[in-house]
């Protein structure tokens, strides 16, 4: 059950955006969320930005770029994984920014998109380079490089890096820990039986509790 | 046995570790899983494709909210009315079908308990202190008000919880946000959390779990605490915690899904051990005093753009940070505001009282107290959307609906409504809304919509004056 394509390097043009606090409502507006599949969301990606003439995402020089460069706190706001699906659908496999929201970066990993954290100075330099030249994100060496000898090292959680590079299915990996999970549940049954579920979730009482 | 003093967060975390891994991540057990129609269909589809089942359907609860129109759901004869938007209808039908297939309890759209997931969880007693609770929705942080470690997750994680009842997580850093003193006249929990976010910034809590402490939090009702914890995510923190105390226990006792009898007594004994130990260390502490907090609102398109209602639209040139200056310029352009304008001189066309931040009974009471005997001008469309069917009934029993409708507010069915532009309730482009919701992002309430986040009382004040108004000037002066 590998859902993800393995990612080892990402090379190509990059959208030199640099915007801070890009929230997931900007990445994919809510009205695109009424889908029951993961596909086709690229069409709605950055819809409000694209409504502006001369925007970066409709600039031919950057069409189909696999990399996006942004500012602090990329992907803040709503937890919608649709944001990662939309980026993936428009062909983005790496986002470079000084920081990411926790939820977005988790969603990115799980969809084969590398969130690369670099200091602001490095991001500023890459924004400059990306206007004219390609950029390479390499998971093997954990570096971002440019044709001009720039070389910026970044860090990734080792497990997440492995999942990305091998395209692993996290659910499958955890299911293999079934015994540990069952043991934990048995422990709860013994020590905090009230939390175990069956009884706690006994029923929804409807009638006039009058308490809201 | 002398052990290191622990924080509330550490105690809950420790009680849920299934396995610790050498790389510092842990497999954490999840006690409660809330789902809704928007972030679950793809998770169910993946489960089905892989031939997997939901490990603990009994720990999972489903409620539709985001998509649901807030107009009547049944006709006079009690027949269900169809949902006009075909995509919304499809998503809602998928939730009903998926929950039936996988054996998950489903509160459907005509059930009296239906409402916004984050209102329903606490109200039903599904949310309990010391539990881990997740939902595919970032405002899951709200449940931390009851001392549950609660946070939003993405759809892949929803699938992970379905299949394994666990999540793979790294422990967060802890931030104490301490608010001491006594809140002034007209200052509400919403103003407290707006002030906190104004202070720490929209990314200030990234990587942290916040614990709210201090006299102001202790004195707050559970409803108020839910408002505060709800917006933790707007400060970048995935979760916000408030230690359970007598207020929490009194709120929970007797709720349908909360515990009873001996279970309750045993749970209570454990819950009382949860608050952070004296001397427990946080990675970071932020202190605010109640005297610094006035009725507040946002002026821009980030929840950190907070000013007191007596303040003015800021001048972008006043920001030292160049990127902040640029962001402020863009925000003001989008918001259609001129630097130096008094906030109270800004007219509004819409008022929205609702959302998981402020749609509980106390919120509606606070708004009704201001609306009582006043009138919404024709220039304003104002709506009140209770957070759940039970809140709605309670409000109707108290006559709040009649106060609102007499003043010219719309009184609607529970759901997310105008908090996000996913159902028919939207703010038209270029129009301005005083909203009790939690996000003032570009396009959040509709493409081009301009949002000012406020408390319920401030929203009611805006509705009856037709502008952003200082609720203190309207309080205690209306005809009874
Ligand atoms: S009310 Fe708004 S913030 Fe709350 S769950 Fe619904 S859409 Fe999300």
Automatic annotation (TrEMBL), chain B:
EC number: 4.2.1.33
Source organism, top-level taxon: Bacteria
Keyword terms, alphabetized: 4Fe-4S, Amino-acid biosynthesis, Branched-chain amino acid biosynthesis, Iron, Iron-sulfur, Leucine biosynthesis, Lyase, Metal-binding
Residues annotated as domain Aconitase/3-isopropylmalate dehydratase large subunit alpha/beta/alpha: 10-466
Iron among keywords: yes
Gene: leuC
Biological source species: Sphingomonas aracearum
Reaction it catalyzes: (2R,3S)-3-isopropylmalate = (2S)-2-isopropylmalate
Pfam families on file: Aconitase
Gene Ontology MF annotations: 3-isopropylmalate dehydratase activity; 4 iron, 4 sulfur cluster binding; metal ion binding
Biological role: Catalyzes the isomerization between 2-isopropylmalate and 3-isopropylmalate, via the formation of 2-isopropylmaleate.
Stored CDD domains: IPMI
Family under the similarity heading: Belongs to the aconitase/IPM isomerase family. LeuC type 1 subfamily.
SUPFAM superfamilies, per database record: Aconitase iron-sulfur domain (SSF53732)
Name by which UniProt lists this protein: 3-isopropylmalate dehydratase large subunit
Complex and partners: Heterodimer of LeuC and LeuD.
């Amino acid at each position: 059950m590998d859902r993800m394509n393995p990612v080892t390097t990402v090379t190509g043009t990059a959208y030199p955006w640099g915007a801070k606090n890009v929230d997931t409502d900007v990445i994919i507006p809510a009205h695109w969320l009424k889908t029951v599949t993961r596909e086709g969301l690229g069409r709605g990606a950055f819809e409000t930005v694209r409504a502006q003439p001369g925007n970066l995402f409709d600039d031919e020089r950057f069409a189909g770029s696999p990399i996006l460069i942004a500012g602090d706190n990329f992907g803040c706001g709503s937890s919608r994984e649709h944001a990662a699906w939309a980026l993936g659908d428009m062909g983005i496999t790496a986002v470079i920014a000084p920081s990411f929201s926790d939820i977005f970066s988790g969603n990115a990993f799980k969809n084969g998109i590398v969130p690369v954290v670099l200091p602001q100075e490095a991001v500023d330099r890459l924004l400059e380079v990306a206007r004219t030249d390609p950029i390479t994100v390499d998971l093997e060496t954990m570096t971002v490089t440019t044709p001009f000898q720039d070389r910026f090292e970044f860090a990734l959680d080792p497990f997440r890096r492995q999942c990305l590079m091998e395209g692993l299915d996290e659910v499958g990996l955890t299911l293999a820990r079934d015994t540990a999970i069952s043991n934990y549940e048995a422990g709860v049954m013994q020590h905090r039986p009230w939390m175990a579920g069956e009884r706690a979730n006994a029923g929804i009482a409807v009638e006039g509790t009058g308490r809201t | 046995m002398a052990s290191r003093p622990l924080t509330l967060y550490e105690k809950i975390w420790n009680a849920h570790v299934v396995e610790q891994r050498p790389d510092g991540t842990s497999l954490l057990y999840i006690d409660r899983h809330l789902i809704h129609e928007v972030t679950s269909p793809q998770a169910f589809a993946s489960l089905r494709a892989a031939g997997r089942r939901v490990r603990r359907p009994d720990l999972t609860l489903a409620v539709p909210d985001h998509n649901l129109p807030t107009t009547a759901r049944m006709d006079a004869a009690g027949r269900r009315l169809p949902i006009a938007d075909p995509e919304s209808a499809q998503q809602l039908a998928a939730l009903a079908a998926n929950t039936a297939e996988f054996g998950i309890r489903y509160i459907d759209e005509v059930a009296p308990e239906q409402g916004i997931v984050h209102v329903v969880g606490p109200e039903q007693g599904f949310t309990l202190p010391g539990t881990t609770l997740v939902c595919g929705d970032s405002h899951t942080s709200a449940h931390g008000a009851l001392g549950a470690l609660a946070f939003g997750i993405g759809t892949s994680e929803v699938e992970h919880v379905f299949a394994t009842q666990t999540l793979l997580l790294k422990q967060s850093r802890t931030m104490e946000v301490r608010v001491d003193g006594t809140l002034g006249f007209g200052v509400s929990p919403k103003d407290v959390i707006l002030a906190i976010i104004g202070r720490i910034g929209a990314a200030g809590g990234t990587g942290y779990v916040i614990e709210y402490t201090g006299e102001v939090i202790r004195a707050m009702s559970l409803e108020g605490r839910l408002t505060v914890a709800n917006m933790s995510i707007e400060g970048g923190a995935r979760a916000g915690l408030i230690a359970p105390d007598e207020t929490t226990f009194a709120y929970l006792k007797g709720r349908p899904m909360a515990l009873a009898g001996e279970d309750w007594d045993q749970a209570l004994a454990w819950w009382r051990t949860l608050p952070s130990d004296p001397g427990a260390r946080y990675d970071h502490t932020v202190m605010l005093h109640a005297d610094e907090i006035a009725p507040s609102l946002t002026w821009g398109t980030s929840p950190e753009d907070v000013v007191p209602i007596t303040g003015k639209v800021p001048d972008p040139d006043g920001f030292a940070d160049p990127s902040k200056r640029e962001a402020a310029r863009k925000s003001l352009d989008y918001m259609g505001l001129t630097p130096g304008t008094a906030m109270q001189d800004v007219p509004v066309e819409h008022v929205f009282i609702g959302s998981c931040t402020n749609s509980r009974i106390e919120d509606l009471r606070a708004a009704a107290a201001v609306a009582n005997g006043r009138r919404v001008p024709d220039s304003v469309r104002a709506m009140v959307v209770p957070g759940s069917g039970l809140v709605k009934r309670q409000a109707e029993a108290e006559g709040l609906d009649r106060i609102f409708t007499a003043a010219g507010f719309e009184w609607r069915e529970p759901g997310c409504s105008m908090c996000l532009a996913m159902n028919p309730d939207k703010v038209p482009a270029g129009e301005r809304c005083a909203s009790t919701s939690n996000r003032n992002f570009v396009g959040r309430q509709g493409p081009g919509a301009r949002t000012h986040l406020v408390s319920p009382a401030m929203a009611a004040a805006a509705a009856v004056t037709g502008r952003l108004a200082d609720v203190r000037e309207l309080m205690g002066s209306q005809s009874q």
